[in-house]
Amino acid sequence: MKVLAGERPINDRAVLQRCILIEMVKGEPERDEFSQEDQLRLSPLRADLLKWRCAVIGGSETLNYARPEWLKSRPKEIFGPILTVLHGSSLYPLVEEFVLEQIEHGKLNLQGSLEANVLSIVLKLLENGESYSIEFGQLWQNLMESLSGEPLNYKGAIATSYAFVCDRFGKVTKKQVSRILSISFSMLKQPTVEDGRKVTYFIVKDRNKLVRACKKYAIEVPAWLRTSDSSAQNSVYLVNLVNPISEESPLPGQAKNCHSDGLESQSGSDILSRNQVNQVNQVNQVTERSDRHYDSVIYHAFLLPALSSRLGSNHNKQQIEVAETSKPEPKSEPNPVTSTPQTESIVAEPKTFNGLEEARRRLEEAINQLEPEVRLFLDSYRVDDSGYSCLRCKCGASFFSAEDFESHVRFGACKARRCACGDMWLSLGELLEHVRKTGCTIDPNPPPDPPEKKAKRRWRRLHKNGGYFEASDLE
Amino acid sequence: MADDESAVTLQEILKVLGERVLLIWHEREKIKAGSKYELATFVRRFAEPNYTPTRDEIVLLQKLEKFRNADLEGFLKLIKQAAAKVAPKEEEEGAQKRYVLSTVLPGPVVLEAVGLPNSLNDYDPQLLTYSSDGFELNEFYQIEDTIFMPRSPRSYPYPPYVVNELDSMKSRLDLIAEVYREVTRYLDVAQVEAAIITGFVLLTYVQDLFSTVPYLHFVGDPESGKSHATLLLGSLMYRPLVGGCMTAADIFTYLGNEDVPLTLIEDEIQNTERDPEKVKILRMGYKRGFKIPRVVLFEGGRRIDYFSPSV
C-alpha cells in the first residue's frame, strides 16, 4: 500500500484513478507537531494494531466483506477494502455516502468527457450515413464545431490543422481522437486515397462495443444500434466492408472497382479477407509514394529556388529547370486506385521522370566541380524517379545540393576524419587507431575553420533542420 | 563491562587481535544475520569512539577480557565457543535459518518481528508468535529443520513494535475509535476524510486479505499539513517506509524479499510522472499478482528476482 503526498496530484490518469484524494487545507489541529514523545505515546496503539493483525491473519477474528450491489468495478477495488475494514463502525455510513458521491461524480465526469463527445458525434454520423464507417475529417469538423474549438496548424505549414483548442478540454489532437476511435470504440482505421488526397475512414468492427461504450458514457443507445444480434451486426459490417465495389452502394473510403472474394476470410482474421488486407496495403503503398512525389514537387518548386538564391548556385538553377519540365501536376496525377479496375494495377508506379538522365548528368557535373579534397568525403549520391537528388557524406549526413555538401565539409562540421592516405574514418579515435596500426600520418591539411561566425550560424541552422530551410528563409 | 575503563581495555584487545578477531566476528555475524551489511555495521560501530556493546557482544567481550593475556589460539577458540553459545544449537545440526519480518505458518501460526527494549536504550529482536495458544514472545521459532529468527530492528526503517501486554487484545471497533481519535487530534480534516484515513490505517494491517488496495493521496499547498499527516501515518501504519524521492530501485529494495505487503509513504510526489518506471509500478502495484523481474548481482554471480509491488 502506498500513501502519496504532494502539492499537486500526480499527473497520470491511471494512477490517479487508484488514489483516494485527500485535499489538505491549512487548519488548526489540536496537536500541530509530531515529536519523539508522540511516537512513544502511539507505541501501545501500534502494538494493539499489530496484535489485531495477528488475530485476523491467524483466523481467530473475521472481517465481513462489504459487497454492496452498487459497488462495482474500480470503485469496488478502491473503496471495497476500506468499507470492509470499517464495517459495523459509526464511520461506515460516512464513508459509504462519500463513495456514492464519488461514483456519481465519476459518472458525470464520464458524461462530459472527450470520449463521450466523440461517441455522440460518431453515433450521429453513423445514423445519418449509409454504412458503418465515418470519415475522420467529417468527424473532426463536427467535433471542433460542437466544442467551439480553434484550429491549430503546424508552424509555417499550409496543411490542415492537427489539433484544436477548446475551453473544455484544452488542446485536442487528431491523434488523440484517432486513439479514442481505435481503442475506446474498437473501430478500424482505414486510410485511403480519394481524388489524389488522403482520406481516413473509421469502420465499426463490433456494434456491441459501441453499445457498451454508450452505456459507459451514459449515452442513450440508438434504436438502430440496439437491434439485431452480434453475428448479424458483423455480417452487415463485413458485407459493407468487402463489397464496396458495387457502384450502387459504395462504401466511403473504400477503393472502388476492387475485387471481392465475398465473406470467406483467408487470412485468419474475422474482419478482413486476405484480398482486403492486400488492397489496404496497396493503397497505403500508393499513398506513401504519392507523399514522396508530392514532397519532391514541393522541393523543386519552392525550396530549391530559395536555396539557389541564397547560395547563388548555378547548379541549383539547372536542377530547377529540370524539375519544372518534369514535375507532374498533383491534381492531374492519375489516381491508380480509382482509375484502374484490376487489383494488380493498384500498385502502379508514378510516371517516369523524363529528365532523369539529364538530372543525373548535371548532378555529376556539379560533383566534379567540387574540390578534390571535398569530393573525398562523398559517399554516394541518389537521383530518384522524380528528379529528387541528394548527396551523402561519408559521415552519414545527406544534402540536397553540392554547395551544402561542400560547406558541410569545409566548415569542419563533418564528423568524418580523413587520413593522409585518403581513407575516411568516422571518429578521431578510429583515425588514431588506423594511424597507430599502419604508420600512416594524419592529414596535414585539415578542412579550414569557418571563415566567419555568420556563415557558421547559417550552416548550423541548415543542419539542424535536416537540410531544409525555415519558413523565414523563404521570404 | 559497561564502565568506560573496561570498554577501553576491550578496544585495546581488539586492536591487538586486529583482523583475525574480526574474521571470527564475521563468522559469527554471518550466522547471526547472513548479510554483509551486518559486518560493515559491526566494524563501523567498533570504530566509533563511544562504542557501547550490545548484550550479545558483552557475553563475548567478557570472555575476551578474561583471556587477554592468554595465547591467540585460546582466544579464537573461546570466541568460537561463545559464538556457538549465542547461536541456536540446531545450527550445528544443519538447520536452516530464516530471518523474517512477518510470516504465516500452517496452523496457522503468525510470526511478527518485534523489539524488546534493553538497558542500553536499544532493542533486542524478538518474535511475537500468535497461535491457538495466544501470544508469545520468543527469540526464535523452530518448525522442523527451519528456524525462524526475527529481523534486527536495525534492519528496518521504522521503530520496532514493542509488545508488552500479551494477554489482552482490543477489538476492531475499539481500534477504529482510537485511531480515529488520534487522526482527528493531529489532522484538521473533514470528518469523512478522517474516517477514510482511519480505515486506511487499519487496512494496512490486513492488506494480505485483499486482492486490491487503494492509494491515499494527500494534495495541498505548502504548510497545509501533508508532511505532518505522513509522519502520523508513519507512526500508525503497518511497517511503513516514510520518505521522499523514492526511485523504482528503492521500492524494489524495500519490498525485496519480504513475504508481506509493506507500506510506502512518500512525500513530495509531484513530478513523479516523469519517472515512467515508477509510474508503471504504481499503476499495477495496487493489485495482487503482478511480478516485476529484475536481475540482481550477488557474490556468486547473478540471478533474477521477481518483485511483487503488491504481494
What do these coordinates show?
The complex is a heterodimer of chains A (475) and B (311). By secondary structure, chain A is α+β, with helices and mostly antiparallel strands. Chain A has three domains: 1-22 and 49-111, no CATH class; 114-254, no CATH class; 282-412 and 447-474, no CATH class. Chain A has helices at 13-17, 36-57, 73-86, 92-111, 114-128, 136-146, 174-184, 207-216, 223-226, 230-242, 274-311, 314-326, 336-339, 356-368, 372-375, 402-410, 428-438, 453-464, 471-474, and strands at residues 2-6, 19-24, 133-135, 150-152, 163-166, 170-173, 187-194, 197-204, 378-383, 389-393, 398-399, 417-418, 424-425. In chain A, a hairpin with a 5-residue loop joins strand 12 and strand 13 (424-425). In chain A, helix 3 runs antiparallel to helix 4 (92-111), helix 5 (114-128) packs across helix 6 and helix 5 packs across helix 7. Chain A starts with a strand and ends with a helix. Chain B is an alpha+beta fold and 311 residues long. Chain B has ten helices and twelve strands. Chain B has helices spanning 4-17, 19-32, 36-47, 55-66, 72-86, 172-186, 191-205, 226-236, 248-255, 276-284, and strands spanning 96-100, 102-105, 109-117, 123-131, 134-138, 141-143, 146-150, 215-220, 240-244, 263-267, 292-298, 301-307. In chain B, strands 2-3-4-5 form a four-stranded antiparallel beta sheet, with no helix packed on it. A three-stranded mixed beta sheet of chain B has the order 1-7-6, with no helix packed on it. A two-stranded parallel sheet of chain B has the order 9-10. The model of chain B is unreliable at 1-9, 33-40 and 85-92 (pLDDT under 50). Strand 1 of chain A pairs parallel with strand 8 of chain B, so a sheet runs across the interface.
